[in-house]
Write a structure and sequence with these properties.
By secondary structure, the chain is of the alpha/beta class. The chain has a single domain, classed as 3-Layer(aba) Sandwich (Rossmann fold). It contains eleven helices and eight strands. Helix 9 links the parallel strand 4 and strand 5. The longest helix is centred in the N-terminal third of the chain and has 21 residues.
Length: 270
């Protein structure tokens, strides 16, 4: 059986490919580089922010596998494969970890093999879907083949929520996803903010395809959840693994990890 090749519109920039460019990757097109360079002209620290956001993801995954006992991950807004993806970090700590990746960029599908190199004890899979349609993600057979939603799952929404404007009901989307997860699950999220930027920079960035939200607005995603120390703050300050901490102005992104109320101990999936 043959499958149609993914349809990739190279004339329009895509956040996953723009992020890849900022991280020094080669899986991007002229439109992505043009958009990325225009944003960087207005916010010169954007490459630092992208790198720090990636490090935040890695630290949170190590925490979840090493300290919280999580063995299942639903990573939405995956982006293009790079070094130390979620499954690689998780399976370094717990080889039996299971991961489902989700992204809406067809180019990610063409590289999905790099996301599926699971440790033999664990498993990974990839779904091409959009965060704006959580019911499609939750009903996809691949999700249920890999993850047991009766056991705790870490929902990873790293640098993706700021691509949903208020009309797209981002808080309802997160709630719909969390409502399907077992007690003891976790939410990991990071989100671009203008809180550390001057007014002129904020105004220039507001013209792009993402929404800068304040700490108060970001905190609404965690309503009813148990925040893990140090709570909501700059991603660079979330359990840093170095004494050299990047100033929030250079990585103007909030991040947090929170737990869905329930049993204190997570059990490994299947």
């Amino acid at each position: 059986m043959t499958h149609d090749a993914p349809k990739i519109d190279t004339s329009v920039s895509h956040p996953a490919r723009r992020y890849n460019y900022w991280l020094g990757g080669k899986d991007n097109f002229a439109a992505d580089r043009g958009s990325a360079d225009a944003i960087q002209a207005r916010y010169p620290d954007i490459r630092t922010a992208a790198r720090e956001n990636r490090r935040f993801l890695q630290r949170t995954v190590r925490y979840l596998t090493g300290e919280a006992g999580i063995r299942q991950f639903l990573d939405i807004g995956t982006g293009l494969p790079t070094a130390d993806n979620t499954h690689e970090v998780a399976q370094q700590v717990a080889p039996a970890s299971r991961i489902v990746y989700v992204d809406n960029d067809p180019l990610v599908m063409t590289h999905a093999r790099a996301l599926l190199t699971s440790d033999p004890e664990g498993r990974t899979d990839y779904i091409e879907a959009d965060l704006r349609e959580p019911h499609k993600i939750l009903s996809d057979p691949k999700l249920h083949e890999v993850l047991d939603l009766e056991q705790p799952v870490a929902l990873m929404l790293v640098a993706v929520l700021h691509f949903l404007d208020d009309d797209q009901r981002p808080h309802s989307v997160v709630r719909e996803l969390l409502d399907r997860l077992a007690p003891g699950s976790y939410l990991v999220a990071s989100h671009a903010t203008g809180d550390f930027l001057d007014q002129g920079t904020r105004e220039q960035l507001n013209q792009y395809d993402f929404v800068l939200r304040s700490q108060e607005q970001f905190s609404e995603f965690f309503t009813g959840l148990e925040l893990i120390e140090p709570g909501i703050g700059p991603i660079t300050a979330w359990r840093p693994d170095s004494t050299e901490i990047v100033n929030p102005k250079e990585a103007s992104v909030y991040g947090a990890v929170a737990r869905v109320a329930g049993p204190r101990t997570a059990r490994a999936a299947r």
